[in-house]
Amino acid sequence: MSAILHWCGDVTVNNVASYRAAANVEIEVPGYGKVKGDVAWGGNWFYLVRDHNMELTLNNIEALTNFTWAIRQALCSNGITGAGGREIDHVELFGPAQIANADSKNFVLCPGKAYDRSPCGTGTSAKLACLYADGKIREGQIWRQESIVGSVFEGTVKVRDGKIYPSIKGSAFVNAEAELVFDPRDPLCMGIRV
Is 0.70 topped by the overall pTM? Predict the structure, then answer.
C-alpha cells in the first residue's frame, strides 16, 4: 500500500490486492425479504448490493441504516463470512449516480452502525474488484464512485500476477488537530473494554 500526494491536494492511495470471494450470494433479510450481493475484499470485508428498493439520499439515512444493519445481522446469523471466517462488517448499497461525472452512487454501513460520508476507499476497491471480475471495467479505466453526501472518488485497477490492485483518488481536508494525553493513573485511559 502506498499513497501519492498530487499538486492539487488530491491523494491517490494504491490499495491492497482486492477480490470478489463470492458472487450473487442470496440471503433472507427479516422484514425485507431476499437480498443478493457479492462478498468482496478491498481492505475490509464487504457485502455489495446492487438490486434493492432503497432511495440513496441523505433524507433516507435512517431507513438505509436500518436496511443495511438488517443485512449485516442476516449475514452473521446465516454464517456468511469472508475468507477464514472473517466477519463481513461493511454493507454497501449501489444505485444510479446523481452527479453527471459519476458512474454510481453508494451508501456504506461501517462497523458501529455508522455510515461513511465518503465513497469509502476500501468499499470502492471491493466494487472495482467485482466490476473487473464481471468484465465491466478494464485495467486503467476510471470508475467514479459518488458517496451518499455527493463526494466522489476515482478508482482504477492494475493487474499484477493475476491479482487486482485498486488505486483510489480523492481529497480530504484537515478538520482538527488534537493532542491526546494518557495518564497512566487513569484506569480507563485506554478506553472501556467489554
Answer: yes
